[in-house]
């Protein structure tokens, strides 16, 4: 299984390098369309290789997707935390009740009751 993962990562690396070499021409990346920039009076632009723009878009999409999913699952993580707290509280209560039940009994019998 480890070799399959290394093979997949190697093939992915080769594909990304070939895409990068095939799309190395410089493109201009603008913040706004020309008409809107003329209306507002400013526009930010930069020149980057095309593969950086494409791969940067993919990375930005992944980051946004992961963040969105993390925020969506917040209520589930909160519920799990609350349930863990309830379980700990109930376990302490059961242990307390067992200790109260075993008061005055022989120590060996109390230990046997605790294991059950």
What are the salient characteristics of this protein?
116 residues, mainly alpha, two-stranded antiparallel ribbon, 5 helices, 2 strands, 9% strand, membrane, transmembrane, transmembrane helix, isomerase activity
Concise account of the structure shown:
The chain is built from 5 helices and 2 strands.
Blueprint of the fold:
Layout: H1 2-22, E1 26-30, H2 34-40, E2 45-49, H3 50-72, H4 74-101, H5 107-115
Antiparallel strand pairs: 1-2
Overview of this protein structure:
With 116 residues, the protein is mainly alpha-helical. The protein has a domain at 2-72. It contains five helices and two strands; from the N terminus they run H-E-H-E-H-H-H. It has helices spanning 2-22, 34-40, 50-72, 74-101, 107-115, and strands at 26-30, 45-49. Strands 1-2 form a two-stranded antiparallel sheet. The longest helix has 28 residues, at 74-101. One of its GO terms (cellular component) is plasma membrane. GO terms for molecular function: isomerase activity. The chain crosses the membrane at residues 48-68. Residues 80-107 form a coiled coil. This is Phosphoribosylanthranilate isomerase.
* Helical content class: over 70%
Total number of β-strand segments? 2
Strand numbers in spatial order across the main sheet:
1-2
Give the low-confidence spans: none
Provide the residue-averaged pLDDT. Answer: 88
Structural class: mainly alpha
What profile does the largest beta sheet have? Answer: 2 strands, antiparallel
Number of helices: 5
Order of helices and strands: HEHEHHH
Shape, principal axes of CA atoms: elongated
Distance between the termini: 41 Å
Query: Nearest-angstrom radius of gyration?
Result: 31 Å
Query: Strand-residue fraction?
Result: 5-15%
